[in-house]
């Protein structure tokens, strides 16, 4: 028996594994709780200031990044928030003149969705305000802490991409 | 004019503010992207291994933490993921014998929802597997990185709580 194994300050393998399990779960729950609070704040403000929803904002943000247009399928894949119905939202935004469906240049069976000039103008106005909210919501961290978090998330994202590819 | 203001290595106030704005937004987008990947992985696995959904799992997890029962209103407030309809999910789980509605002890107009013994047993089985998935998904970080993240999220959560209370 080694001296280490008898030292009550050194946890045995099983309790160490247990601790690491709980650590990951506790981390994920705290993460989710922060995510929910941030999303709720953004949802409330989008509703009160722009009469819009987070899935609508998200969909317009994806289109803004892709001026050449996106198919419904590409849009679905790119959305960052859940709970939105891509077809339903596109229908609404089209009725309001903010997006337009056009025949897809290469796939006859598909449509390509784009922002209209009015949609682009409205999105830019929302995006500026949205960015200010995000700055405020993350103001609990110093620029150094934000930079460290950004780096650490890159490591996690790579790990998740590897996991996804072996599923 | 100070020597500092002329030094091209020192950004002026406006560009520094711009950078910090973009930093917060880039951080939030990377965060959302990681959250979506983790949630998607958990959703897929809950569906294939347990034939259940993330909102159902989430609702059962809240009930497991509150054996005394929760009202629908309390449940709605506690759910960590969006996109679930509390009444609809409770109806389904009740039909499957996993939860039960009972008259609320103090509020005559309310019901209190609890896990049944079968519900508790099923949840415990899912929770063990779910925890192993979370460990695997966060395995891109060392225990030290996870601990640092856990601490840093606490700082953010406090900031968000302060923001919420002044809204």
Structure explained in plain terms:
The structure is a homodimer of 167-residue chains. Chain A is mainly alpha-helical. Chain A folds into 2 domains: 1-51, no CATH class; 52-140, Arc Repressor Mutant, subunit A. The first copy, chain A, has 7 helices and 2 strands. Chain A has helices at residues 3-6, 13-50, 54-65, 72-78, 86-95, 117-137, 143-165; strands at residues 99-103, 111-115. Chain A has a two-stranded antiparallel sheet with strand order 1-2. The longest helix of chain A is centred in the N-terminal third of the chain and has 38 residues, at 13-50. Chain A is globular and about 65 Å long. Chain A starts with a helix and ends with a helix. Mean pLDDT of chain A is 87; it is low at 1-7. At the A-B interface, helix 2, helix 6 and helix 7 of A face helix 2, helix 6 and helix 7 of B.
List the helices and strands and how they pair.
The structure is a homodimer of 167-residue chains.
Chain A lengths: L2 H4 L6 H38 L3 H12 L6 H7 L7 H10 L3 E5 L7 E5 L1 H21 L5 H23 L2
Antiparallel strand pairs in A: 1-2
Helix pairs in contact in A: 2-6, 3-6
